[in-house]
């Protein structure tokens, strides 16, 4: 489970254009896109040192493709700050675009498994349409 939590932290923090500013009261405050700020605040409420993890990605960004309304996605490639010789590519965008390009997913243990048609249907119908759109 800890591996999944680490993957979620990394994907939220490394794939964010929001940044952290220190307030006059010495609090670390996320600033930027509303959705990204909300996700960073969620991590902060879980007592995750977002500002420290963000600092670890400095100088490790290998490529950044900004959001394109035509492609409906953005991506960033980051050389991992802890795992030697590992580069992760994080993609975010419209679920129908991102999910159609997924071949693998992580299971509850953090192992990589195929993202098959049943998983695709579950995510698009139950999660995206059923929960997020309601």
Please write out the topology:
Blueprint (H helix, E strand, L loop, with lengths): L1 H13 L4 E4 L5 E4 L2 H12 L4 H7 L4 E8 L4 E7 L7 E7 L1 H6 L3 E3 L5 E3 L2 H16 L2
Antiparallel strand pairs: 1-2, 3-4, 4-5, 6-7
Describe, in plain words, how this protein is organized in 3D:
By secondary structure, the chain is of the alpha+beta class. Helices cover about 40% and strands about 25% of the residues. It contains 5 helices and 7 strands. The chain has a 3-stranded antiparallel sheet with strand order 3-4-5. A two-stranded antiparallel ribbon has the order 1-2. Strand 4 and strand 5 (about 85-95) form a beta hairpin. The longest helix is centred in the C-terminal third of the chain and has 16 residues, at about 115-130. About 10% of the residues are buried. The mean pLDDT is about 90.
Query: How many helices in DSSP terms?
Result: 5
Radius of gyration (Å): 16 Å
Which runs of at least 5 residues are low in confidence (pLDDT < 50)? Answer: none
Shape: globular
Distance between the termini: 28 Å
Q: Got a strand count?
A: 7
Q: Which structural class matches the secondary elements?
A: alpha+beta
Biggest sheet descriptor: 3 strands, antiparallel
Overall average residue pLDDT: 89
Oligomer: single chain
| SSE order, one letter for each helix or strand | HEEHHEEEHEEH
Query: Strand content of the residues, in percent?
Result: 25-35%
Spatial strand order of the main sheet: 3-4-5
Name the helicity range. Answer: 40-55%
């Amino acid at each position: 489970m800890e591996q999944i939590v680490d993957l979620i932290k990394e994907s939220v923090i490394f794939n964010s254009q929001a940044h952290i500013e220190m307030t006059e009261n010495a609090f670390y405050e996320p600033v930027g896109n509303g959705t990204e700020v909300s996700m960073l605040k969620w991590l902060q409420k879980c007592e995750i040192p977002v500002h420290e993890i963000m600092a670890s990605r400095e100088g490790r960004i290998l490529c950044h493709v900004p959001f394109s309304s035509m492609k409906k996605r953005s991506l960033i490639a980051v050389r991992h700050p802890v795992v030697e010789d590992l580069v992760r590519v994080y993609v975010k965008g419209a679920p129908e675009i991102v999910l159609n390009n997924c071949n693998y997913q992580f299971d509850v243990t953090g192992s990589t498994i195929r993202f098959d048609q049943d998983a695709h249907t579950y995510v698009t119908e139950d999660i995206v349409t059923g929960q997020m759109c309601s």
